[in-house]
Design a protein that fits this description.
By secondary structure, the protein is an alpha+beta fold. The chain is built from 14 helices and 23 strands.
Length: 456
């Protein structure tokens, strides 16, 4: 059995999904209402932040996704007690018994997740040392941990590479540092925030990521007692404090999931109300959604996304860090662009190998060509590195059913949309990977009237 299939089964079984295939009868519009919980990209980091406190934390609106289960397992092997809160989706995280874990236990719980690297700063503060195994993640490009290791070295950590993983220690404690990121990496920014809050002195981070999930993590750390300022020029300053307490926080909604269901509504000629979605964090997506021909209505409790009729329009999209168009938004929206009249261009500037998912779409009848050049005219860091990172989509194209294997999280949800849009039957394999970031996506498909069958 290959690693991808193993990963799919592991992620699916973590949330009670015991099947690895779904057969979809396409061509039926998705209609109805679904509800969002907290953002995967915030919740997992907020759970790690609880290690920094000397009292328990309460995190609300936690989705039942496999990435959350992985982090919960990692916290528990490190001695953090995790229990269910008073309301559904709430977790109580008590770090009073935090302790070093065995490498084998960390490796067993981490699987393909990259989250263990973010444990390092908090564990160095609490225990003076940290261990991490080799790290995995979706196969969408080179996401090295070099940024993280260099950041930790800047704070005074000693990094030793071992055959089984990496050991870090801080015999003299961690000190505030000046850190300049060559690219606004979300993960590296999170690493700095989680490490600097208890470091001795002032930390200045230049070139920081400022995604809404980063800002919500800052909100959490401030509730814990941290002193953090954010300038308009991507500079974040953290004044180290002696202690942090626990927090109580309701997580930011998952804007990536919101955009995915919006794209599904548009591609299937459907009408989906996404409860919990908010306009401010979706601003850039909403502009592009409207340009393509989609319609939306902003309500107090969510956003309605629908196809208003008529032809969809081709467009040019360039992914970028916030406040640009998110890389996680482009894959689901590409399915709608196959139905748009004319030629669309998507220039991917965040992950260099994110177009692996289009091979299946071409087999289904999509007209997509992938190129090495920066086709929007704006050079990016991948332009001279021989990566196929620009896609040309010609439409409208009629998709027909096919057998598809999920390659990664967002690409997998995009394949679901393609199968829902296509004429005839499609079988999508390795669907457990989708459970990494989409809570109860099978139940939501049922609520929206999708025609499908589950297979073992």
């Amino acid at each position: 059995m290959n690693t991808l299939v193993d990963d799919a089964k592991q992620h699916g079984s973590a949330v009670g999904l015991e099947v690895d295939k779904i057969t979809i009868n396409g061509g039926k519009p998705l209609r109805g209402r679904i509800e969002l919980k907290g953002a995967k990209n915030l919740v997992t980091k907020a759970m790690v932040a609880a290690i920094l406190g000397d009292t328990p934390s309460v995190l609300k609106d936690v989705p039942n996704i496999s990435d959350v289960r992985i982090v919960r397992g990692l916290l528990e092997v490190h001695g953090v007690t995790v229990t269910e809160g008073e309301e559904p989706g709430a977790l109580v995280l008590d770090p009073s018994g935090v302790a070093q874990a065995h490498m084998a236990d960390i490796d067993a719980h981490a699987g393909s997740s990259r989250i263990p690297i973010l444990f390092c700063g908090p564990l160095l503060h609490r225990l003076g040392e940290a261990f991490i195994p080799d790290l995995g993640g979706c196969r969408i490009g080179d996401r090295p941990i070099d940024y993280h290791l260099e950041v930790l070295r800047n704070f005074g950590a000693i990094v030793e590479k071992l055959p089984s993983g990496i050991r870090m220690s801080a015999p003299n404690g961690l000190k505030g540092a000046k850190v300049e990121l060559p690219y606004p990496s979300v993960g590296a920014t999170e690493q700095v925030l989680l490490t600097a809050t208890l470091a001795d002195g002032i930390t200045e981070l230049t070139g920081a990521a400022i995604e809404p999930e980063i800002m919500d993590l800052i909100n959490i750390l401030q509730k814990m007692g941290a002193i953090i300022t954010v300038d308009t020029d991507r500079v974040i300053r953290i004044e180290g404090v002696d202690r942090l307490s626990g927090y109580s926080h309701r997580a930011l909604f998952d804007r990536n999931e919101a955009a995915s269901w919006a794209a599904a509504a548009l591609a299937t000629d459907g009408d989906i109300f996404v409860g919990g979605a908010r306009q401010a964090e979706m601003l850039t997506f909403l502009n592009v959604f409207r340009k393509v021909g989609g319609a939306f209505e902003i309500e107090e409790d969510g956003i309605r996304f629908f196809h208003p009729g008529g032809e969809l329009r081709s467009t040019i999209i360039e992914t970028d860090v916030h406040p640009g168009f998110m890389t996680d938004w482009q894959q689901p929206l590409v399915i709608a662009l196959t139905k748009a009249k004319g030629v669309s261009i998507v220039h991917e500037t965040v992950y260099e190998q994110r177009f692996g998912f289009v091979d299946a779409l071409v087999e289904m009848g999509a007209k997509i060509d992938v190129h090495k050049e920066c086709l929007t005219g704006k050079p990016c860091r991948f332009g001279q590195r021989n990566f196929k990172h620009s896609a040309v989509i010609s439409g409208p194209a009629k998709l027909t059913g096919a057998d598809i294997e999920v390659p990664d999280l967002r690409g997998g949800f995009s394949h679901l949309i393609a199968a829902l849009t296509a004429e005839g039957r499609s079988t999508v394999s390795n669907v457990g990977i989708i459970a990494r970031g989409y809570e109860n996506f099978i139940g939501k498909l049922e609520l929206l009237g999708a025609d499908f069958e589950l297979e073992g």
